[in-house]
C-alpha cells in the first residue's frame, strides 16, 4: 500500500479499511458511510426520495453535475412501478441509454465516481449502487494550439478535458487497433491518465515499459503532463527533453502511426509521446503538410538556427578575444574601432546582454495584460538597441549578435527544447571566454557526448543518425515527399517498418499501343 | 562482461579511422615527409599494405577468441608470457594516451602560447573522461556523427587549397632518391597502422564479428585515402624541403587558404580537427586502458578507474617531454619501432601461437 500524503487520517481520506469495503444493502448504512467520508463538504447533496415505495437516495456534488442530466434521470426513474413485474436493475438498464449507467459494488469506486461528477443512486435492499454519467463538462472550446501554430494543416489543439482529447485522436485514427488504457494517478487529484498506442505498430516492450513507469508513480497530485514527463523520462538529470509534449492531435497521431506511445493527462492540453528522438525537436508539424522541397529547406534553416543560437555569441567573443586574424582586415578594423571606447571585456558584455534579454523576455511574459506586452518590447528595444550602445556600455555589434541569437532561438519549434538550447549558450560563452574556439568546440562536444548517451525508452536519442539507420534519414535531413515515405522511422516501433505501398508515386500513363507502333 | 554496449562494425571502423587519421595528419606526416620527401605517397601505399599484416592478424586473433578483448585473451589463454605481454600492452596504451594528450597541448600552444599547459590538459581530460565514463556506445555514436562532418570539411579544404598556388610537379621525380627513403617511410606508415591494435579492446563488442576482416581492410583503405591528400598537399604547396622542416605541415597548409573576401584564415578548421580528432583518439586509447586495466585486475566495472587514470595521464602528459623538440625526438626515434612491435609483430606472433595451440588441443 502506498504511503499517504496527508498529515493525519481525516474523514475525507479513504483508509484501507473503508475503501475496499463492499457496499452494504442497507440504504441508511451506505448513506452514513458516505456522509462520514464527505464530512464538511458542503457542496455534496444527499437527496433521499421515494420511487414507488422504494426508498432511494441521490448523492452528487452540486457543482460538478449537469442539472439537465439530473432532470432526465429523475424523469426516467419516475416511470418505474413495482407492478411492471420486473426488477429495479433491469428497469434502469432499459430506461437509460447505454454507457450512461454503471453498477458499482465497491465503496472506493463510488467515492471516485462522485468526485468525478457522477450522480449516485443508492437503493435500499440492493447490493450495488448505480452511478449516472452526469459530469458537467464546461471547459475550453477546441481552438487553435497557441504554442504550435501552423499555416497549413489541421488547426485544432488539445484542451484540458481528457475526453475531448481522446475524441480528437479517435476521430483521426478510426481503427480498433488504437488502444486506449486508463490509469488513475495522484492520491489527492485522482487524475485520469490514458495511454494510447496502435497495436501492431507500437513495440509491446515500450508499451509495457510506459505502463510500468506510470504505475510506479506515487505522488499526491498530477496537475499537468509535465509532472508525469519528469517522472518517467529515462535520464532524470538531463535537461534535454526525451519525451515530446505537444498540443497538436495531428502530431500525436503522426507519432502513433510511427509506433510511439501517447500519454494523455486529464487537465493538461499537452499530450506526451514517447520515445522521442533528438531530431524530432527540430521538426514542426507543418513540415508534413508543406511541399517536400519547402519543408526540407525550412528544416535546414532550423538546423542552422540551432547552431546560430548555440554559438553565435561565443563566436563573436572568440573572434574578438582570441582569433582576430580570422576576419578580413576591414571588418577587423571596424570591430576594433567599435570596441576601442568600450569599458568592459567582450565576455562581460555578452553575459550582460544575455541577461538583459532574459529580463525582457520574462517581463514581457509575466507583465499583467493591462499594461500590454508591447510596452516591454519597446522598452527592451530602446534599452538594448539605443541607450546601452549610445552610453558606451555595449558595443553595437554585440547588440546585433544577441538580437540575432534571441531571434533564432525562437525558430526551434518545441518550447521545452527552445528553453534548453537558449541556456546552453551561456556555458559555451564562458568556455569560449576562457579558451577561445577550443572552448567552444569542447563545450559542444560535451553537449553532444551527453546527447548521444541519452536514451528515450531504450531507443537511442540520436537515432536514426547515430546509430545509423538509413531508412530513417529521409525524415531527418530532408523531408521526403509522401510517396517516398514508405517506411516508418526505424527503431521506434515493431521490426516491420513498412508503412505504405511502393506504387504511391504518380507517373504519366504508359504510351498507348499506337505510339509504340509509330516508334517501330 | 564489463562492457554491455554493442557498436556496429561501421562504428568500430570509424573509430579506428578517426584515431589513425588524426595522428597521421598531426605527426606521422612530418615523419614520412622528412624520410621520404616527395615520394611520401608511395611510402604511404606500400606502408598500408605492410600495415595490413598487423591489422589482419589482430582481427584473426580476436575472432579466434570471440567475446574476449585483447587483454582478456592475453591474461586467460597465454600463460605467464601472455600476462607480461598484457602488462606491456597496458603500458603501451598509457603511452599512446599521454602522447595524444601532449600533442593536443602542443598543437594549441601554437596558437595560444600564453595559456599554461595544465589548463589544456585539464580541459581535454575532463572531456575524454566524460566520454570514457559513458562507455563504448557513446564514443561510437559521437564519432559516427563527427567523422562525416570532419570529412566534409576536409574535402572542402582540399578544394579550397586547389588553387593555382599548388604545384604538383614538386612531387617529381618519382623515386628520385632511390628505394631507401621509400622503404624507411613505408616502415613508418606500417608502424602507424600498428595503432590499430587498440581495436583489440573493441572488436569483441561489435555486432557482426564475422565480417571484421572486411572492416579492418576497409579501415586501412579509407585511412590511406585520407592520408594521400595531406601527404601531397604541403609538398605541392611548399616544396619538399620546406615541408620537411615544418612541425605541423597540414596546419601550415590550412593557414594558407583564403576563401575570397569572407574569411581570411582557417585556423578554426585546424582547431576543429585537432580538438575532435584528438578527443576521439585520446578517448579510444583511454577507454582501452581503463577497460584493459579493469579486466586485468578482474574488476566488475571500469568506471572507478577513469578518474584515477585521468590523474596519471595528466601528470604523464606534462612530464612526458620537456619541450616540443624532445617530443619530436620520441616521435622520430621511438614511435615507429614501438608501434611495429606492438601493432604488427606481437599480434602476428600471438595469432600463430594461438593457432598452433588450438591445433594441438
What does this structure look like?
The complex is a heterodimer of chains A (520) and B (361). Chain A is of the alpha+beta class and 520 residues long. Chain A has three domains: 117 residues, no CATH class; 127 residues, no CATH class; 162 residues, no CATH class. Chain A has 17 helices and twelve strands. A five-stranded antiparallel sheet of chain A has the order 1-2-4-5-3, sandwiched between helices. In chain A, strands 6-7-9-10-8 form a five-stranded antiparallel sheet, with helices on both faces. In chain A, a hairpin with a 5-residue loop joins β6 and β7. In chain A, α10 runs parallel beside α15. Chain A is globular and about 100 Å long. Chain A starts with 15 loop residues before the first helix and ends with a helix. About 2% of the residues of chain A have low confidence. Chain B is 76% helix and 0% strand. In chain B, α2 packs across α13 and α4 runs antiparallel to α11. Chain B is mainly alpha-helical. Chain B has a single domain, classed as Up-down Bundle (Amino acid/polyamine transporter I), CATH 1.20.1740.10. Chain B is globular and about 60 Å long. At the A-B interface, α16 of A face α5, α6 and α11 of B. Chain A: It comes from Virgibacillus litoralis. Chain A: This is Spore germination protein KA. Chain A: Belongs to the GerABKA family. Chain A: Keywords: Membrane, Transmembrane, Transmembrane helix. Chain A: It is found in: Cell membrane; Membrane.
Amino acid at each position: 500500500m502506498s504511503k499517504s500524503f496527508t498529515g493525519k487520517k481525516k474523514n475525507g481520506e479513504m483508509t484501507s479499511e473503508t475503501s475496499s469495503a463492499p457496499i452494504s444493502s442497507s440504504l441508511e448504512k451506505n448513506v452514513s458511510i458516505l456522509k462520514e467520508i464527505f464530512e464538511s463538504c458542503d457542496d455534496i447533496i444527499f437527496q433521499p426520495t421515494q420511487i414507488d415505495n422504494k426508498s432511494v437516495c441521490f448523492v452528487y456534488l452540486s457543482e460538478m453535475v449537469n442539472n439537465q442530466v439530473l432532470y432526465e434521470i429523475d424523469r426516467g426513474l419516475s416511470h418505474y412501478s413495482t407492478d411492471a413485474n420486473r426488477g429495479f436493475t433491469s428497469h434502469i438498464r432499459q430506461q437509460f441509454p447505454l454507457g450512461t449507467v454503471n453498477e458499482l459494488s465497491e465503496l472506493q469506486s463510488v467515492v471516485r465516481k462522485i468526485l468525478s461528477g457522477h450522480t449516485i443512486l443508492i437503493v435500499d435492499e440492493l447490493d450495488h449502487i448505480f452511478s449516472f454519467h452526469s459530469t458537467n463538462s464546461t471547459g475550453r472550446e477546441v481552438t487553435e494550439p497557441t504554442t504550435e501554430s501552423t499555416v497549413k494543416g489541421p488547426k485544432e489543439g488539445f484542451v484540458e478535458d481528457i475526453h475531448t482529447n481522446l475524441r480528437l485522436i479517435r476521430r483521426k485514427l478510426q481503427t480498433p487497433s488504437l488502444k486506449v488504457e486508463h490509469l488513475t494517478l495522484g492520491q489527492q487529484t485522482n487524475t485520469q491518465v490514458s495511454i494510447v498506442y496502435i497495436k501492431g505498430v507500437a513495440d509491446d516492450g515500450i508499451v509495457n515499459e510506459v505502463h510500468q513507469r506510470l504505475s510506479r508513480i506515487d505522488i499526491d497530485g498530477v496537475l499537468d503532463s509535465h509532472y508525469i514527463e519528469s517522472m518517467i523520462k529515462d535520464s532524470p538529470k538531463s535537461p534535454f527533453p526525451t519525451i515530446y509534449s505537444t498540443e497538436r492531435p495531428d502530431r500525436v497521431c503522426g507519432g502513433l502511426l510511427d509506433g510511439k506511445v501517447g500519454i494523455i493527462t486529464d487537465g493538461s492540453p499537452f499530450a506526451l509521446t514517447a520515445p522521442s528522438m533528438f531530431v524530432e525537436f527540430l521538426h514542426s508539424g507543418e513540415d508534413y503538410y508543406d511541399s517536400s522541397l519547402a519543408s526540407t529547406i525550412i528544416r535546414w534553416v532550423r538546423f542552422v538556427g540551432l547552431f546560430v543560437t548555440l554559438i553565435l555569441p561565443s563566436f563573436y567573443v572568440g573572434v574578438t578575444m582570441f582569433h582576430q586574424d580570422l576576419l578580413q582586415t576591414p571588418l577587423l578594423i571596424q570591430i576594433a574601432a567599435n570596441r576601442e571606447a568600450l569599458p568592459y571585456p567582450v565576455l562581460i558584455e555578452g553575459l550582460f546582454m544575455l541577461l538583459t534579454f532574459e529580463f525582457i523576455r520574462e517581463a514581457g511574459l509575466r507583465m499583467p495584460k493591462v499594461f500590454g506586452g508591447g510596452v516591454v518590447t519597446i522598452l527592451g528595444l530602446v534599452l538594448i538597441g539605443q541607450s546601452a550602445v549610445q552610453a558606451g556600455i555595449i558595443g553595437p555589434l554585440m547588440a546585433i549578435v544577441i538580437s540575432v541569437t534571441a531571434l533564432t532561438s525562437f525558430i526551434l519549434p518545441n518550447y521545452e527544447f527552445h528553453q534548453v538550447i537558449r541556456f546552453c549558450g551561456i556555458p559555451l560563452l564562458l568556455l569560449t571566454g576562457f579558451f577561445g574556439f577550443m572552448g567552444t568546440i569542447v563545450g559542444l562536444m560535451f553537449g553532444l557526448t551527453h546527447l548521444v548517451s541519452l536514451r528515450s525508452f531504450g531507443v537511442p536519442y540520436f537515432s536514426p543518425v547515430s546509430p545509423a539507420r538509413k531508412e530513417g534519414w529521409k525524415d531527418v535531413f530532408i523531408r521526403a515527399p509522401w510517396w517516398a515515405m514508405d517506411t516508418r522511422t526505424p527503431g521506434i516501433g515493431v521490426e516491420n517498418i513498412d508503412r505504405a505501398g511502393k506504387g504511391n508515386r504518380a507517373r504519366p500513363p504508359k504510351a498507348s499501343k499506337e505510339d509504340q507502333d509509330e516508334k517501330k | 562482461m564489463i562492457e554491455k554496449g554493442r557498436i556496429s562494425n561501421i562504428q568500430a571502423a570509424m573509430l579506428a579511422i578517426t584515431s589513425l587519421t588524426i595522428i597521421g595528419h598531426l605527426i606521422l606526416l612530418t615523419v614520412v615527409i622528412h624520410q621520404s620527401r616527395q615520394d611520401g605517397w608511395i611510402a604511404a601505399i606500400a606502408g598500408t599494405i605492410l600495415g595490413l599484416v598487423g591489422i589482419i592478424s589482430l582481427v584473426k586473433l580476436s575472432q579466434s577468441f570471440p567475446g574476449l578483448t585483447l587483454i582478456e585473451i592475453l591474461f586467460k589463454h597465454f600463460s605467464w608470457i601472455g600476462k607480461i605481454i598484457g602488462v606491456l600492452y597496458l603500458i603501451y596504451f598509457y603511452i599512446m594516451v599521454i602522447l595524444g594528450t601532449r600533442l593536443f597541448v602542443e598543437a594549441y600552444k601554437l596558437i595560444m602560447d600564453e595559456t599554461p599547459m595544465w589548463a589544456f590538459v585539464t580541459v581535454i581530460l575532463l572531456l575524454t573522461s566524460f566520454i570514457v565514463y559513458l562507455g563504448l556506445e557513446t564514443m561510437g555514436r559521437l564519432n559516427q556523427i563527427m567523422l562525416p562532418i570532419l570529412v566534409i570539411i576536409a574535402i572542402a579544404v582540399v578544394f579550397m587549397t586547389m588553387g593555382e598556388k599548388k604545384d604538383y610537379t614538386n612531387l617529381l621525380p618519382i623515386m628520385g632518391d632511390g628505394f631507401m627513403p621509400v622503404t624507411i617511410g613505408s616502415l613508418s606508415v606500417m608502424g602507424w597502422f600498428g595503432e590499430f591494435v587498440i581495436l583489440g579492446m573493441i572488436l569483441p563488442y561489435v555486432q557482426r564479428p564475422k565480417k571484421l576482416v572486411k572492416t579492418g581492410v576497409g579501415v586501412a583503405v579509407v585511412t590511406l585515402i585520407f592520408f594521400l591528400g595531406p601527404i601531397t598537399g604541403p609538398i605541392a604547396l611548399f616544396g619538399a624541403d620546406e615541408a620537411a622542416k615544418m612541425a605541423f605541415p597540414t596546419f601550415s597548409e590550412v593557414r594558407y587558404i583564403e576563401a575570397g573576401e569572407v574569411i581570411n584564415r582557417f585556423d578554426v578548421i585546424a582547431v576543429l580537427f585537432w580538438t575532435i580528432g584528438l578527443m576521439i583518439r585520446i578517448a579510444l586509447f583511454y577507454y582501452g586502458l581503463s577497460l584493459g586495466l579493469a579486466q586485468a585486475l578482474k574488476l566488475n566495472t571500469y568506471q572507478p578507474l577513469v578518474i584515477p587514470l585521468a590523474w596519471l595521464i595528466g601528470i604523464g602528459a606534462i612530464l612526458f617531454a620537456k619541450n616540443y623538440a624532445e617530443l619530436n625526438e620520441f616521435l622520430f626515434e621511438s614511435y615507429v619501432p614501438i608501434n611495429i612491435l606492438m601493432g604488427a609483430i606481437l599480434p602476428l606472433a600471438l595469432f600463430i601461437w594461438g593457432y598452433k595451440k588450438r591445433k594441438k588441443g
